[in-house]
Amino acid sequence: MVQVQALIKDRELLSYPCPDGFRIFLCCHADIMKLNPPVGKSIMNAGQKPVEATARAIIHVDMDAFYAAVECLDNPELKDQPVIVGGLGPRGVVATANYAARVFGVHSAMPMGRARRLCPQAQYIRPRMSRYREISALIFSVFRNFTPTVEGLSLDEAFLDVTSSLKLFGGLEEIGLQVKQEILRKTGLTASVGIAHNKFLAKLASDAQKPDGLVYVRPGEVHRFLDPMPVSRLWGIGKRTAPKLTALGILTIGQLRRCDASILRPVFGKRTEHFQNLARGEDDREVQPSRPDKSISHEVTFDTDLADRRELLAELLRQSEKVSRRLRAQELMASTVVVKIRDAGFHTVTRSRSMRACSNSTRTLYRMARALFESWREKHKTTPVRLIGMGVTGLEQESGDGKAAGDRLDSSTEKSLDKVLDRINQRYGDAKIVHGLALRRSKEDH
Question: Among 52, 71, 134, 157, which one carries the catalytic annotation?
């Protein structure tokens, strides 16, 4: 182990323990502008050779506790308080917890009831997806200032292939720091950045020094970086597979890498080579620029099971509004409507219906979703519903030629109404104006 130095706000230097040879940067907000060295010169270990010109240059950016960070940004009074964002009902789950809340053991996907028991003093906030998408758009605009090859994984996470940008923007550390700097300048939020020659290593690196970290794994440092990690850090090794490896005495990635393939085959089968390649840090997947959605959907799990037909239809209409609005925002139309229903006994039914022509009309999509729901309800009139969802597939670019949609033409009145509602919601925020029936569910959400 060696001591790695990090620049902090008052310009003093602190040492942090780190595996020998690694280059880990912890950047404080006020001094991030000062962490931009001359091109070709490293901040740490300056005597090391630069990455080979033939190596790919991949950056993984992961925003720090994104939803909670946005809430703290918009409400400074939340600073330094535990903040937990997620569903607030008895069946809600944690979407994001900030680092002050994680100290108490709260984490994403945890049932909200358990989070409240672990951290009752936290500020609990319902997600504001429209606001998060707004900030996300700013973040992704930063990415595209450095490279067009951006693969978005979620609102707050992406891979960047900057191989072709090195001559323009400098070395990999310089680009990584500039990305952090620009995100901070545009949004006031911090990001953790991982840099490597492939996606697998870059993603692990971004998680190595959260929050507000930057970790660069050079090609010659891969084994030193990976070997001490538990095997569970490899994609695809979960709760079922890890105990089988433990029984073989394989606890770390390094042990997996050195293990004979014949010992691993009873555990991994045909995927043995794949996992040993990962253990060696080998990953040849390309960064795939974001493609249009193949499907769009919304669903909700009710706080208490619902059997009231009108309440369920109100929720379907609300979801149809959201789905159709997203379609129109992307200038897409859908050919198939899907409805998902889960009852109180956890039995899940999915039904779909294709239309004679594509549509993005709220009324048309709702009419299709309602018909699918009614066909299910004929045999389940008193069955309480735990979850209901509505979505669309078969997406294609909007033609604007006025072809038949569903069972009849989308009227010009319906199209005009959709445009007016879109403009109002775009200007004043989602759900400021909705169809009358959907208002029943919108009120409950607020």
Answer: 157
3-state SS, residue 334: strand
Cα 30 to Cα 323: distance, rounded to the nearest angstrom: 41
Round to whole Å and give the CA distance between 322 and 419: 13
**Strand 213-216 versus strand 191-196 pairing type:** parallel
Complete domains list, the chain, with CATH: 227-279 (1.10.150.20), 295-445 (3.30.1490.100)
Cis peptide before 50 (omega within 30 of 0): no
CA distance 342 to 349: 6
156: DSSP letter = T
Q: For residues 385 and 307, is the Cβ–Cβ distance under 8 A?
A: yes
The span from the CA of 2 to the CA of 21, in Å, is 8
Torsion of CA 432, 433, 436, 437, to 10 degrees: -50
| C-alpha count within 13 angstroms, C-beta hemisphere, residue 159 | 23
Q: Which helix (H) or strand (E) is 254 found in, with range?
A: helix 253-258
State the first-to-last Cα distance of the chain, in angstroms, to the nearest integer: 52
Residue 398 class from Cβ within 10 Å (0-12 exposed, 13-18 middle, 19+ buried)? middle
Q: Is there a cis peptide before residue 211, judged by omega within 30 degrees of 0?
A: yes
Rounded to two decimals, the pTM is: 0.71
CB contact at 8 A, 319 and 299: yes
Contacts 24+ apart (CB under 8 A), 262-267: 267/241
For 166, the 3-state DSSP assignment is helix
Q: CA neighbours within 13 Å on the CB side: how many for 175?
A: 27
- 3-state secondary structure (DSSP) of residue 399: coil
Burial class (CB in 10 A: 0-12, 13-18, 19+), 301: middle
How far apart CA 21 and CA 18 sit, in angstroms, is 8
Residue 157 among the catalytic residues: yes
Q: What is the CA radius of gyration of the chain?
A: 25
Q: How many CB atoms lie within 10 A of CB 441?
A: 21
10-residue mean pLDDT profile of the chain (446 residues): values are 37 38 42 35 37 75 97 95 93 94 95 96 94 94 95 94 91 94 97 96 96 95 96 90 94 96 94 95 91 84 92 94 90 93 93 90 94 94 94 82 47 70 69 51 49
Query: Alpha carbon of 17 to those of 3, 25, 221, 445: distances in Å?
Result: 5, 12, 17, 47
Q: Distance (Å, rounded) from C-alpha 98 to C-alpha 227?
A: 29
DSSP state of 271: G
d(C-alpha 231, C-alpha 22), whole Å: 20
